[in-house]
Amino acid sequence: MKKSYGAGTVIGGIFIGTLFGIALKILFTNHTCSKTQGTPFTGEDKSVKDIRKKMKKDANEMRSRAEELENLAKD
């Protein structure tokens, strides 16, 4: 006999999983830094232009570091 899972079982499983995830987040969240939680940039980097500049700068630094590592690997 084949066991079939109905839509109610699937939705119930998703609901229970979501509640479990929320409970874990509440238990393990550091409440002292909840102001900055969810924002990847802190300090004065608030405008889109500042964030964009920082991302470009970081990308260029990573690119140059990758080139350095590539040159080291060739040697």
Explained architecture:
- This protein has helices at 7-28, 48-74.
- The chain is an all-alpha fold.
- It is elongated.
- The N and C termini lie far apart (65 Å).
Q: How many helical elements? A: 2
Computed structural class: mainly alpha
Overall body shape? elongated
**Mean pLDDT metric:** 78
Poorly predicted ranges (pLDDT <50, ≥5 residues)?
Answer: none
Strand content: under 5%
What's this entry about, in short?
The protein has 75 residues and is mainly α.
How do the helices and strands line up, and which of them pair or pack?
Blueprint: H1 7-28, H2 48-74
From the structure above, extract its key features.
mainly alpha; 2 helices
